Amino acid sequence: MRKFFATAISLLTLLAIVAACAPKSAEQPAGEDFQVGFVTDTGGIDDGSFNETQWNGIERAAEDFGVQAQFIQSDEATQYESNLTEFSSQGYDLVIAAGFYLGADVANVAKLYPDVKFSIFDYAYPDPSLPDGNPGKDACIDNVMGQVFATDQAAFLAGYLAAGMTKTGKVGYFGGAKIPTVVIFAVGLQQGIEHYNEVHGTSVQLLGWDNRTGEGLFTGDFGDLTKGRDAAESLADEGADIIVGVGGIIGSPAFDVVRERGGFGMWVDTDGYNTLDGVQDVILTSIMKQMDQSCYEVVKETIEGDFKGCTNY
To answer: Which of 23, 125, 133, 275 could be bridged to 27 by S-S, CB 3.0 to 4.6 A?
Structure first.
């Protein structure tokens, strides 16, 4: 009797384990019918930073889960809405938008296509800065999931490092555009530099941004490399020997400038040592976001039925 009872318990335990391990119906692989669309920001799909890294995560998810993924490249801001609509009107299951500048258009298109799920990188609703009448101005949107990062924390560490490595006592920063997702790097950099000064009794300066005034050095776009070089040279002229350019490819000329003038550059969003050519001798570090993993997880959660609109990943 004891043997039978023990055997029965073992069988029940085994069944419980098997049941626990068996995937739920909502978690079954979506298969080739599931479609993911990615709309880039300007700068190109192969920018070595913002767009490319998100797309890498989406491609990896598509391969792992056996789903379809396509991208549409936005060459200018006027294309955002039409590109988002292109995927939505075709019945794509999930549409991922590359970043902050697509915020207004994602809100509008998502409202028109409530059965399509959307996710937007570096952005969250509600956003009071949106125009009056935009559905994302005062409320979140049921079929949109944001992806946001505490970038200032990583930038704080980079600022502390830069303050310890500079020989001139001056660190330089410039951004592609004065938007929250670019400014947040400068905020953290300055906080890290100031903390280094407090700890070590130094007076290292950050050029190109001031947390007290909220003003800084910006090129005005993310694609004009001449403007990026001009910004980096102006910082070097003021004595900066470590320069951080934030805004994807717009920051890359900084490495040429520090090689010519002496010093180091920093990259952002991705590991520049691995993604950029010819900078390995002058790159100090990279302020990274796990953009690829974030996009991967959003695709995964959507496939498994765990997409949560009105939330941020």
So the answer is: 23
Distances (CA, A) of 78 to 15, 100, 105, 231, 270: 57, 14, 10, 26, 27
Look at residue 221 in the predicted model and tell me its pLDDT.
87
Q: Which CATH superfamily is domain 26-149+292-312 in?
A: Response regulator (3.40.50.2300)
**Where does 151-288 sit in CATH, by number?**
3.40.50.2300
Query: What are the sequence ranges of the domains in the chain?
Result: 26-149+292-312, 151-288
pLDDT tens readout for residues 193-241: 999 999 999 999 999 999 999 999 999 988 899 999 999 999 999 999 9
How far, CA to CA in Å, does 136 sit from each of 9, 57, 101, 302? 55, 26, 13, 21
Evaluate the omega torsion of the peptide bond into residue 126 and state whether it is cis, within 30 degrees of 0: yes
Return the pLDDT at 6. Answer: 38
Q: Residue 279: what pLDDT?
A: 97
DSSP state string for 278-296: S-TTTEEEEEE--HHHHHH
* C-alpha angle 292-303-269 in degrees, rounded to nearest 5: 10
